[in-house]
Design a protein that fits this description.
The chain has two domains: 1-80 and 168-178 and 196-254, 3-Layer(aba) Sandwich (Rossmann fold), CATH 3.40.50.300; 85-165, no CATH class. Helices cover 35% and strands 24% of the residues. The protein has helices spanning 43-51, 73-79, 96-108, 122-134, 150-163, 183-194, 208-214, 232-237, 239-245; strands at residues 5-14, 17-27, 31-36, 58-63, 66-67, 81-83, 168-172, 200-204, 217-222, 225-230. Mean pLDDT is 87; it is low at 248-254. The structure holds adenosine-5'-triphosphate. Adenosine-5'-triphosphate (ATP) binds at residues 14, 17, 19, 37, 39-45. Belongs to the ABC transporter superfamily. InterPro entries: AAA+_ATPase, ABC_AA/LPS_Transport, ABC_transporter-like_ATP-bd, ABC_transporter-like_CS, BCA_ABC_TP_C, P-loop_NTPase. This is ABC transporter ATP-binding protein.
Length: 254
């Protein structure tokens, strides 16, 4: 069976508020799907449900045909769902290079051994170096994660996600808060990841120019419901989306 990620009637309620409401959608390899919609539409909550940070009130999530609805976030990560790490959950005082090496090591299944120099694993070092170059952090390798600029921290988050070799890449506003010159690096990186047609890529993004340049498909959430789904040109051009949904994204968020 080809790998697919599917949500069926996925729903979460916070008290009386239904933040994600019966969302049924299938994501396939070789497709980058942008999830758009006004502020508070439920995009991040939908992401959190898929990655396991939140548990559904109703509905289910299937990954490669397996029902993962009850699985913990770490189990989903091991199954291949990649979500950018929060650096605060990692090793902020370790260097960029050390963080990436640890993630590469974790993906390899070897345990971190503080006292055993892992210089013996040249293959892992080469892989970590390759990822550092891929995210343009090679020249920041010795810097503590916590001392990085905001843009470089986002790049490190992406590096750690790549290191785990996920089947699904989930990006939640990957360029948010970045300076204008930092944005292209991350966009090029996502475009590069898209070349691997075996991956499913999900992107929550407010910036419509970013969505236009990267997405193969757009889904629109509004009040927690899926209100549009299709090829970018079609979805963007549809009057209902233009007027009622995309038009309301405030400039401050774009
Ligand atoms: N843990 C929570 N408890 C209560 N309400 C929540 C919680 N998380 C999200 N919500 C509510 O659910 C709704 C959807 O929020 P969500 O952050 O998913 O929207 P979004 O589309 O990602 O918005 P934005 O574009 O502003 O990031 C909002 O009304 C929000 O206040």
């Amino acid at each position: 069976m080809p790998l697919s990620l599917e949500t069926r009637d996925l729903t979460i309620r916070f008290g009386g508020h239904v933040a994600v409401n019966n969302v049924t959608c299938t994501f396939r390899p070789g497709e980058l799907t942008a999830i758009v919609g006004p502020n508070g539409a439920g995009k991040t909550t939908y992401f959190n449900l898929i990655s396991g940070q939140l548990r559904a009130s109703n509905g289910s999530i299937l990954f490669g045909g397996t029902d993962i609805t009850q699985q913990s976030a770490p189990m989903r990560t091991r199954a291949g769902l990649g979500r950018a790490f929060q650096l605060t959950n990692l090793f902020p005082n370790l260097s960029v290079e050390e963080n990436v090496r640890l993630a590469v090591q974790a993906a390899d299944g070897t345990h971190y051994e503080m006292l055993r120099p892992w210089m013996v694993r040249r293959d892992l070092i080469a892989r970590a170096d390759g990822i550092l170059d891929q995210v343009a952090l090679g020249n920041r390798r010795g810097v503590a994660a916590t001392a990085l600029s905001h843009g470089d921290q986002r790049k490190l988050e992406v590096a750690l996600m790549i290191a785990l070799e996920p089947k699904v890449f989930m990006f939640d506003e990957p360029t948010a808060g970045m300076s204008i010159d930092e944005v292209p690096v991350v966009l090029n990186l996502i475009a590069q990841l898209k070349q691997d047609k075996s991956k499913i890529i999900l992107l929550v993004e407010h910036k419509m120019d970013v969505v236009r340049s990267l997405a193969d498909r757009i889904i629109v959430l509004h009040n927690g419901q899926l209100v549009a789904d299709g090829p970018p040109a079609e979805v963007i051009a549809s009057p209902i989306v233009q007027e009622a949904y995309l038009g309301v994204v405030p400039k401050s968020a774009a």
